Amino acid sequence: MSLTHDAAPTPSTGRRFRAYTTKHLDELTARAGLGADERLAVRAVASVLPFRVNSYVIDELIDWDAAPDDPIYRLVFPQADMLPHDDVAGIADLLRRDAPRKELNAAANRVRAKLNPHPAGQMDLNVPKIGENDPLEGMQHKYAETVLFFPKQGQTCHAYCTYCFRWAQFVGEPDLKFASSEIDHLVRYLHAHPEVTSVLITGGDPMIMGEGVLSRYIEPLLQVDTLESIRIGTKSLAYWPQRFTTDPDADDTLRLFERVVESGKNLAFMAHFSHPNEMAPTLVHDAVRRIRGTGAIIRTQAPLIRTINDDSATWESMWRTHVRHGMVPYYMFVERDTGPQDYFAVPLARAYEIFRGAYTRVSGLARTVRGPSMSATPGKVCVDGTAEIAGEKVFVLRFIQARDPELVGKPFFAKYDEKAAWLFDLEPALGATRFPYEQAPPEPAAGLAAPAVPVPSP
Hints:
Strand content: 15-25%
Keywords: 4Fe-4S, Iron, Iron-sulfur, Metal-binding, Pyridoxal phosphate, S-adenosyl-L-methionine
Protein name: KamA family radical SAM protein
Cofactor: pyridoxal 5'-phosphate
Helix content: 25-40%
Largest sheet: 11 strands, mixed
Order of helices and strands: EHHEHHHHEEHEHEHHEHEHEHHEEEE
Strand order of the largest sheet: 3-4-5-6-7-8-9-10-11-12-13
Oligomer: single chain
Number of strands: 13
Distance between the termini: 60 Å
Structural class: alpha/beta
Low-confidence stretches: 1-12, 449-458
């Protein structure tokens, strides 16, 4: 009998979903012990970056006795020093004198504009087209085999992570949103591009959608013969596992997953876990078991975030726990060059040591994980370590994915820099004047975004 149809587990945490937003922020940060000025500064940050949490995270995941230093608290609550002091002070002054909403929004937008809201060219460089001048909204086609699709109804989350590189999707500015409700356009594009074998449904969080809406996006994909896998990028297992256990449409959702698997396609559930504490509740274990019972494969990934998971023991614990529950460790990401990167980023040299420290202490079943990986403009670049070559200390780098497929898997080198936190902080090594991805790329396939990558300014 399918695990999908087991009796509903752990009803004690089956309460209805309740969201907390900025209007609850002062009350919640007071609970964390913050003084009046600190709470005002947090509200100022939340005027620029999105804030949303829910009752499950508040009641089950955060250790309020340890707040504001508790890692889950820091994962979802803005910090006063996440943005430059002058920017925070200016917005705090507007809040203090109850400035008009229009003035506050204008100030927030000026700060947002400095935070690189759409890294890696996702609003232009990656957008696919049908025809010469017919861009398809809410889709990205960066790598030949994979298309990303952003369903319009999935452009929020059960809770927002403070580090999220897609923060611009959630701040209420139409010019920063990236979404589509046209599944027919996606299907038409897939038929025209048989080289695409995988679709990643992302957001936001697709699992914020009810089963009826989610199925309207997924069912048409089952008729595309050239499609081999459907991925769902989500943090719902960490932030609202009830979605798969006690929510009214939990069973219907799992039956939808079964239909994907029965169609002969791989269903990859791309679960974001940022800290071992997110796996502690038994409700999460129940949700994982039910999803796996449909035949879906759960792969886990997260960025390396300063003050939250920046030590080897945390990652070792996460990967061991994931394997124990039948999930597949997949990626450790480097914090992207957007939003409060300066606050959360870990230098690449330190990131590699954290990765290696955890990797050396887990079994081969957990060594499916890759990292630390940068999802940069030219592709996914992995830091494979450091070496000394001809008397020069270098980073050894490798493309896991690339706009130019010829670069994939080929090592290249950058000068060692203990402060560098992103690909574009690095310089070529061993006498080279350019990185391989800065050479002239091949012509793109018809309809695929051009892979040309601008050379970053020094």
